[in-house]
Amino acid sequence: MKILVINAGSSSIKYQLLNMDTEEVLSMGLVERIGIEGSRIVHRVNGEKHIIEKEIQDHEVGLKYVLSLFTDSKYGVLKSLEEIDAVGHRVVHGGEKFASSVRINDDVLNTMEMLSFLAPLHNPANIMGIKAATELLPNVPHIGVFDTAFHQSMPEKSYLYAIPYEYYEKYKVRRYGFHGTSHRYVAQRTAEILGKDVKDLKIISCHIGNGASIAAIDGGKSVDTSMGFTPLEGLAMGTRSGDIDPAIVDFLIKEEGLTSKEVITILNKKSGMLGLTKKYSDMRDIEDNAIAGDKVCRTAFDIYEYKIAKYIGSYAASMNGVDAIVFTAGVGENSPIMREEIAENYLGYLGININKEKNNVRGKETIVSTEDSKIKLMVVPTNEELMIARDTKEIVEKNLDELKL
Ligand code: AMP
After folding, report:
1. From which domain of life does this come (predicted)?
2. Rounded mean pLDDT of 244-269?
3. Residue 121: pLDDT band with limits 50, 70, 90
4. Which of 20, 49, 292, 367 has its CA 20 to 30 A from that of 191?
């Protein structure tokens, strides 16, 4: 079964074509700067990267071109587009409506549109991708996989904010959490690596990328996560502040003469590592400068690690124990120093011992704790596209079985 995975942003489309009989990636790429001058496609096939500069006015034009590349004599991997059996779409927000992946029909699309108020930057872009793909591939099933769905298992005590309950009743103001597809993949893979049933494990999954969140996963179910009503809550990130006292918003509105929207933009785009260092949002820059003795970068890096450690500690408490702490995503997978400093400076009391040699690893599944460490410390590279393709395959096969009955 061949499955196309699409992750549509407001001006980009990430794609992967997978052969799900072997879970092999046949081709992948990124359409960038859609509707903006300088649009291009970075297309990868057979280990080669091709950059194709091309005017791309909208998502449909971009996707149409990507589909033509799949059957192209030079870049192609398919004889015909009919080989594509289904399409899996990443959708950021499923609200309380979607606790698992679903086959997309008109009702589902309407519900996604209704939920756009919860993710005004993301859902409309995801929907544009879905509309373009269903237009171009109308005869195959399209499946929606939601970033929030995995966290729908959180109990009320985790997802309700202690604010007047009517705001939850009226507007569904609550914690939703994000990166759910990544946290779910990491939990499953961790159980496989440890040779255990995920139902028997308490896992703290640390998705530490430019956007970052931590999830407490008990028995395979998310029971808490650091991102909240929006992805702004939680850890200090590349450009996001993470947790702050909400009274700061009103203070800045008054003192700086800003609108609330402007303050939220500052908290999303100009805060975090960028805000603290005034220069860098990329952790590689901050790490390099911190190691070279730059005080500002060292402080920013300390804050970054400290917040991660605080969440790990709080989730160890909220699950009343933890078996494995797992690092994933850009920084989590690629920064041995961050893992080492967090383990050594903050996690010793849990009986965690890091093996520095094993920890000297980037982007590779590894148990980085010592044999005698009470809790496993691990690196598990995430694979959201594979998870989306697996869900898509499962739903398509289930539908086929139901049709047979
Ligand atoms: P992501 O959002 O998962 O793509 O992660 C992006 C982040 O990963 C950026 O802040 C990168 O600087 C960071 N990153 C990638 N490679 C490294 C590395 N070798 N050391 C530290 N951070 C890294």
Report:
1. Bacteria
2. 97
3. confident
4. 20
Q: Measured from the CB, is residue 287 less than 6 Å from ligand 1?
A: yes
Residues 215 and 68 in one domain: no
335 in ligand 1 pocket by Cβ < 6 Å? yes
As a whole number, mean pLDDT of residues 238-242 equals 96
Residues 132 and 223 in one domain: no
> How far is the centre of ligand 1, averaged over its atoms, from the C-alpha of 334 (Å)?
7
Looking at the structure, tell me whether residues 114 and 260 fall in a common domain: no
Task: Give the residue whose CA is nearest to atom 15 of ligand 1.
Answer: 330
Q: Within a 13 Å sphere around the CA of 51, how many CA atoms are in the beta-carbon half? A: 5
Whole-number average pLDDT of the chain: 96
239 lines ligand 1 (CB under 6 A): no
Instruction: Domain count for the chain, please give it.
Output: 2
29 touches ligand 1 (CB under 6 Å)? no
Q: Which of 147, 218, 224, 323 is catalytic?
A: 147
CA–centroid distance, residue 258 to ligand 1 (Å)? 32
C-alpha angle with apex 9: 241 to 179, nearest 5 degrees?
50
Which range of residues forms the domain containing residue 367?
196-384
Type of residue found at 5: V
- Residue in this structure with the two tokens 């790429």, named with its chain if needed: 29
Residue 125 shares a structural domain with residue 254: no
If asked whether residues 60 and 131 sit together in one domain, one would say yes
334 lines ligand 1 (CB under 6 A): yes
Per-residue pLDDT at 405: 64
pTM of the model: 0.95
Please identify, among 107, 125, 146, the residue that sits at the C-terminal boundary of a domain: 146
Q: Please report, for the domain that includes residue 107, its CATH number.
A: 3.30.420.40
Pocket test of ligand 1: the residue of 281, 308, 334, 379 to mutate, having most ligand atoms within 8 Å of its CB, is 334
Residue 210 CA, ligand 1 centroid: distance in Å:
7
- Strand pairing report for 221-225 and 142-146: unpaired
Question: Are 202 and 138 contained in the same domain?
Answer: no
Pairwise CA distance, residues 194 & 171, whole Å: 41
- Tokens found for residue 116: 């756009």
Going from the Cα of 11 to the center of ligand 1, the distance in angstroms, rounded, reads 22
> Is 147 a residue of the active site?
yes
Sheet-wide strand order for 40-45 = 48-53, 40-45, 24-32, 13-19, 2-8, 84-91, 142-146, 102-103
Domain membership flag for residue 101: yes
Contacts 24+ apart (CB under 8 A), 395-404: 395/101, 395/102, 395/103, 395/141, 395/143, 396/1, 396/85, 396/86, 396/141, 396/143, 399/103, 399/141
